[in-house]
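Checklist before submission:
- one chain only
- standard amino acids only
- sequence pasted in full

Submission:
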Amino acid sequence: MKRIIHCHPSGIMASKFVLPLIRYEKRIGYKSNIVVSSNGENIVDGVIIKFDLNLKNILILPLSFIRLYIYFYSQKPEILVCHNFKSSLIPLCAGVLAGIPCRIYFNHGIPFIAYKGIPGLLLKWLEKANLFFSTQVITVSRELKEILETLYSGRKINQIGNGSACGIEFKI
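Returned file contents:
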């Protein structure tokens, strides 16, 4: 039985987009769990570890990294799926250290293209780090796929669908 752990920043959003996937994974025989960074109103039945890269979590991120590593090491998943740009780096790094062989970064959008200067450089660095620590990358549009392949040459990027709220398909 394969073990899968999903990491998502929001329990509320995960309940709409990730939990249906987890239910399906369980139905076909996988052991699938979720770790969320915040879980408003206890919507998701999963582990809460504040790993999202935002200012309110900045001081606890080292502890969050250790907690994720311990959790991953104890669960021994074969697959780690990290959803969203700013909440993937810490789980992906902990997944490398825990020896998770398949680390999927699910990219829903590329914020650095909208910024210049230091913010743009930091966001670009974060995107490159997510690509580096993952073993597979999935994105949601042809344009995002092309940008990611250029950003991290030699990396095959997989595309599903033809756009989302953050990856609208512009070419017809």
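Reviewer check: The chain has a mean pLDDT of 89.
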